[in-house]
Amino acid sequence: MNQQLKTAGILAGVLLALGGLATWDEWQTKKDEKKKETENRLFTFEPDKVTGIEFSNREGTAPVDISIERASGKWQITRPSKLLADQQAVDNLLTTLKDYKFESVVADDASKNASAFGLDKPRRVIELKTEKGTAKIAVGSNTPVGYSVYSLAEGPGVDGAGKVHVGSQHLAVSTGKTLHDLRDKKFLTFSNANVAAFELIRPGKPTVKLEKKDGAFAVTAPQSFPAEQNQVFTFLDGIVSTNASTFFDHPDSKLQNAFKGRNIGELRVRLDDKTSVNVKFVEYDKKIHAWTGGTTPIVQVPDDIKGKLEKTASDFRDRKIFSFVGDKVTEVILDGKSFSKKNAEWYGSDEPTKAISQIRSLLVDLEFAKATEILDAKDKASRESTEKAPVHTVKLTIEGSSQPIEIKIWDKAGSAESFLVRHSEAKAANTVYSIGKASLSALDSTKKSAAPAVDLGHD
């Protein structure tokens, strides 16, 4: 018994030793990985701990000195002007500095021969302010051979302060920023969600006006009708999200005078807080420029914005033909034949025990049908078709409504692939909708399913 206890004790000790060894090995591995991760880094810092940046770029035709401060969680440029910074661009700059690794140390004291490394007049100097102090990196000249660059780092979080390091030229390329690179490129700062109304004005064309009512936009001029919400927000997003390709903070007189002449479009926006933003677009020097007036900069914007300004009221119109909900339909009369719903299935009056799935498909087609064109019943294109007998008639009884929806469908004259539709639910009695026959394919399948089988007879 004593021998067994002794053996068990030895085994337990071995297991504990092995467990301890495994734990130590795991700890050592993580330590080695951490050391390898930070080895040869110029800086050891966390980007979210940086509160300010002093950036100096002496390269190019327009050297810049830029001050950036973090305020209320946002990067703000404070020098040479007060501007909102491009948040991603600033974060990317910090990430580049944090992750950059040098290859070797070529001099222990940069001050002794700084000119040999281009560090007496560095092309880039970047200072990072943190709670521990200010760290600085200077980017010197490229090495005579290869694709490397000299650099110098000093301050808290820097190993090998004052030494000349050599490493990839990626450091020089990725820090070669201009004021334009680091500033926010959006020249319109409001959000689509805060737009209460807007007007689109183009020379020689009717002014298009839209207004938000009960949370949804409607066209109010030159005609009044419901708007397709996706179309409205796609348009607004296309304008609001446009980035300026060039800022003219101090435009010359010629560019300023261009906005006193004929413009290619104007967008007047009223926001929920009752403030307004008016932006004019002009073509100057074969480029599109925009200006919101006052002391705001004139900006050059991509040429494709010109096409976005060509929208008409019809482009914003809601092309959904019906507003009923298919699940609320309790009875369908299609071309004189009656169908009723029982336990979520549809049955014909002549075959009350045979479920007909095509009726459900027809209701789905009708509920989500969108017109390719909206016409007036008085138009010649409409009269040529609607003066004839319809090819289909549909009557829908809606749960909770005493007034059925009556629908008439014609083949569109001159178009073998289209129908014309009129219905009693339309807000405008004279409205005629053109729709592709493929969008109402259930009509054809319903017709086929209702066709009697051919009796071939028997010998």
Architecture overview:
- Helix 9 packs antiparallel against helix 11 (441-450).
- This protein folds into 3 domains: 47-182, no CATH class; 192-316, Sandwich (Immunoglobulin-like); 326-450.
- It is α+β, with helices and mostly antiparallel strands and 459 residues long.
- The protein is 25% helix and 33% strand.
- The model is unreliable at 450-459 (pLDDT under 50).
- The strands form 3 sheets. The protein has a 9-stranded antiparallel sheet with strand order 4-3-2-1-6-7-8-9-5. Strands 13-12-11-10-15-16-17-18-14 form a 9-stranded antiparallel sheet. An 8-stranded antiparallel sheet has the order 21-20-19-23-24-25-26-22, sandwiched between helices.
